[in-house]
Amino acid sequence: MMAGRPASRLSLLVGLLVVVLFLLPLLAGRYPLYLAIQILILSVFSLGFNLLFGYTGLLSFGQAGFFAVGAYGCAKILLAVPNLFLGLAGGVIVAGAAALLLGILSVRHTRIYFSMLTLAFGMMIFSIAWKWRDFTGGDDGLVGIPRAPLTIPGLGSLSVATMERYYYVVLIVSLLAILAMYRLVRSPLGLTLQAIRDSESRAEFAGVPVRSYRLAAFTIAGLYAGLAGALLPPLENTVTPPVAHWSTSAEPVLATLMGGIHTFGGPIVGAFLFFMIKDIIVRFTEYWLIWLGAIVVVLTLGFRGGVASIFANRFLSGPVITRQSEPAPPPAT
Amino acid sequence: MKRWILVTFVIVLSLGFATPDPAAAQCRLGVPAIKIGVQGAASGPHADYGRQIEMGSTMAIEEINAAGGILGCKLETKFMDDENKAATGVKNARYLVTEWGAHFMVGTDSSGVAMAMGPVLAELKRIHFFTHAATHRLTEDLVADKKIKEIVRVSVPVYQDAIIAALIFKDRPEIKRWATIGADYEYGYASWSMFKDTLKKYRPDVEFVAAAWSPFLTLDFSPHVSAVMAQKPDAIFSTPWAGEAVMLLRQALIQGVFDQVQVWWQAMGGSVDVLEGITSEVQKDRFKGKLWATARYIHNWPDTPENKAFNERYKKRWARFPNYSAETTYSALFIIKAAVEKSNSLDTTKVIEALKGMQIRNPGGLRVFRSEDQQFVYNVPAGRPVMDPKYPIPVLGDLRVFDAKDYYRHPPFTPVVVTK
Amino acid sequence: MDNIAFQGLIGLSLAMYLWLISAGLTIIFGVLRIVNFAHGSLFMMGAYLAFTFYGLLGLPFWLAVLLSLLGVGLLGFVMERFFLRKIYGIDEAYQLLLTFGFILILDDAVKIIWGGVFKIPPIPAFLDGAWRMFGRPFPVYNLFIIAVGILVALGLWVLFEKTWWGRLVGATASDREMASAIGVNVPWVFSSVFAFGAMLAALGGALGIPVRVVAPGIGAAMIIQAFIITVIGGLGNLKGAFVSSLIVGIFSAYGTLFFPVFELFFIFVIMAVVLLVRPQGLFAR
Prior knowledge:
The structure holds 3 protein chains of 3 kinds. By secondary structure, chain A is mainly α. Helices cover 69% and strands 3% of the residues of chain A.
């Protein structure tokens, strides 16, 4: 594992991308903006997921539970107090709290038991969302959620009702979240998580409180999922129970797999690919499941590093993660 | 030399742009084509309803185009699968309007999807003609109350499932004990609630003795059937629909339900996929005349030349009978045609204005527009599935026809209790 | 009271049906250590094939079921031999992902081949009708399922305790390196076990067609229940799976009778509690 400086070529590319993202409303119409928002949301979601999977070695099938808690939390707040800042903050906090609570239970196990446990918790949240009509609106969900103005007490209020304005909110929040994660994975916490992933016994022997670190990773993943979820209701004006379903939990899994589990940027690349592939496929055929499934199979069999691994040598992309239980990555082409 | 080739190439290309599109020249609205976005559930166990929406809209557009289009403009259509999910339906709607350029949209099976789409339609300023989603709240809340004018409903809502049943069976004094095997979501709760409220007004002596609720995608209803039959009801009000209805009926048959109850009311039992699924049982009269059903259109009513011709054309085109979602969607296209012709415009506000007071003859009968909740009001009878030598699948016979005004709710709308 | 006993019997038939699906999943995990997400899709394929042979081609019901078992067994063999085998020894996560990919492919494949409308054949005559039990008509079909479930349980017990293949499989499951060292063709054992598990899933699907529709997505509904049962019983523990099928099936039936508010939620709670308190399952030795 090398914690090297990223090549300057990569920094330039990323910088250029950020500039393009800021200029997007001037370059593209409303639907591409809408897609971009969805991609940013999935990126944040997947980044949190990969902290847990790629860096800590825990595959969670229940992240949608925290995504939903963030979404419903934000929605309930916005329906009561139309303040976007409060809604986002509230959604994230509640999701983080849920992740902490369920995390205490979940990190007692690893591997398949951990995955099944997270699946169970995620589906429990789905059941609650579906059944608790009085609070969550049941299968109808919550409707009429306003795209409330961003009001910070003492600083003033900014309307974000248009798609363009809301896009900037999502963009800035996402960039901050990505930056935070970038610092996190290169910090001692991030390195410790990777050590735990590679050899739990060795880490324990070195005096690392393994379970606490796993809980930290789980909670942070939950916070990111909650943030992603909280960004959704103002966009769509509705929240419905499928946001908590295991099929939604599968989205960051697929996105990360496609983009590359071994790199920091993999989940973001994967989010873009996942959305674009599905969006383009459904324009031509209704049989998009079979194409998506075929892509998953091909990636699992042949390109486990995801798309990022195909370009691994062209741009050295930050701390390269390897997993001890994997065969060595193929020599770079 | 190469430069000249390139220049010639560019000039020829530009000429391609300059040549007026012959079709556009005749279109009096100044667009290359009128675009209709269509959505329905094309995946999962209710996939036939989305299929039928697609078939109905495609055939309507083919017929309209063959007759010269709308004001000389051809129609173009695009179908997208909403997977019965609100998020997908909304995303597709945004794509269809902002990217593909839809002028109007039709379809939508799921009530949940419809409710989510409502506010977005107002944002997109496009009319969506709802041709299946049955929740009363789409029109009672979003239109009558919140005044979202971009919502127009063409198919009869949940009043059909609930209120007609009460009107028919209030006149059966021997039926006193009702039970429900209900769909465990809003549709099931709302219809049972509306049914009970209506029936109680006419028959205070009636009792509601049992209820069993089955979630979406239940495959085994035997515990629900046996739980309900333990209370020995006289009649059963059943709301799981499509494939679930067929399974439920099968599983009820083998528990001898049709020997014990007097009536089984099957919501949307007149739908083509259900009738196909119960053909062999109806042929053997396994339901003993106790099964009652309705739909949002049935292929054998009204007995008019127009409806018969529609059925013939549809069967010829698709080798299947038109489901109710097909007829409603087909009719929605002709409603769009009438409204655009009247307003001579594609502008949403003008077209909405043109709908006021509209009366239109469709295969399903006469539809009359009601401004208060923007519904096209029409009536569909209820009856018993029976075999008719003219058809390979059952039809509804022994029809009870009610005037729409007798079972449609009217404003001011009182809220309906929507819990179990 | 009679109604309570009756509902219990209904619950038993529910349980035996769930057992058929869970048995294959348990065996596959027990031997290959693969959590086969695609098990529900194999169930669905069994239903589609049986429908084709019985409902479309008019073959006798028992023959249609047999052919569908063979067909899905072949499909299972192909899935294991040419796909899953390539990722043994690599993180379990990839097995989950690969089998998830199969679900997506098969769900669309059935739509393309058979169309999206649900299908249901006429009920075979020998399964029609009812016997009076506890004063009420209890369907012959449900009795048939109870009988099949018990036979399968007995059959599996005999198979794994008494037969050559069964003991080979057991040995490979406990220690594959040792088995290989003494000359067992481990890859062959794996393929045959996966195919066998697939056939059990197909049995569930095929036997369901007289009273359940055959439609895309019916596998997804079953797989979650099967997972819960195998976890509660202990992943890889056949006896555990049998008992937990009984628990879940009978519980659901009584839930419908007494607590209309009783939900899948509670079953997930039980699953979570088992995982937390006794992850090896309620019935691990």
